[in-house]
Design goal:
This protein is of the alpha+beta class and 155 residues long. Helices cover 45% and strands 21% of the residues. A hairpin with a 5-residue loop joins strand 2 (24-31) and strand 3 (37-43). Helix 1 crosses helix 2, helix 2 packs antiparallel against helix 3 and helix 4 packs antiparallel against helix 5 (137-151).
């Protein structure tokens, strides 16, 4: 495995463990040259999941895009990287277990919102404001009001 920092070919595995219900292996590695540590994941390869975008385009599902959106929403929030990884894994697993080879991008967005509302309400609002394309403060306030009603409080 090449070191992502210095490109050295000699890295050693410090720790390995199964993740994602045994369908992947997480390895902590250390570079023999620069001594920096990094994490790699090994997953089995399976049939790709195709995402149908709002405009009808089709593209392969990208767990990194889901991860990126959630990371942006959770920026500067008390949400750990492990919690985010669990959310992404859960969404990907549910999509693949649906036995559909094509999934609408809106289904993915709704799944992310469902997970974020449980994880962190501020992250949920951040994601919703981009995903639902809030164009004005009224739409933003409406979403906040609906969230407050779900929690059983009016603020």
């Amino acid at each position: 495995m090449h070191c992502p920092f210095c490109g050295n070919d000699d890295t050693r595995v410090l720790e390995s463990r199964q993740v994602e219900e045994g369908t992947a292996i997480r390895r902590r590695r250390e570079c023999d040259r620069c001594t920096r540590r990094f994490t790699t994941f090994e997953r089995f390869e399976d049939t790709p999941l195709i995402v149908v975008k709002k405009d009808g385009r089709r593209m392969e599902f990208s767990r990194s895009k889901v991860m990126s959106g959630i990371l942006r929403a959770c920026e500067k929030r008390p949400v750990s990287a492990e919690q985010i990884e669990e959310v992404v894994y859960s969404i990907e697993k549910d999509l693949k277990n649906s036995h559909e080879r094509e999934v609408l991008s809106t289904e993915i967005g709704e799944a992310v919102m469902k997970a974020l509302i449980q994880l962190d309400e501020v992250a949920y609002i951040r994601f919703a404001s981009v995903y639902r394309e809030f164009n004005d403060i009224q739409r933003f306030l409406k979403e906040l009001h609906e969230l407050a009603e779900k929690r059983g409080t009016k603020e």
